[in-house]
Amino acid sequence: MVSLGNPEYGCDLAPIDFAAFARACGGTGLTIDKPEDCAPTLDEAFRTPGPVVVEAVVDPNEPPMPPRVTAKQAAHLAEALAKGTADGHKIIETILKDKVRKPV
Question: CA of 85: how far to CAs of 4, 8, 42, 48, 66, in Å?
Answer without folding.
Answer: 13, 5, 31, 38, 19
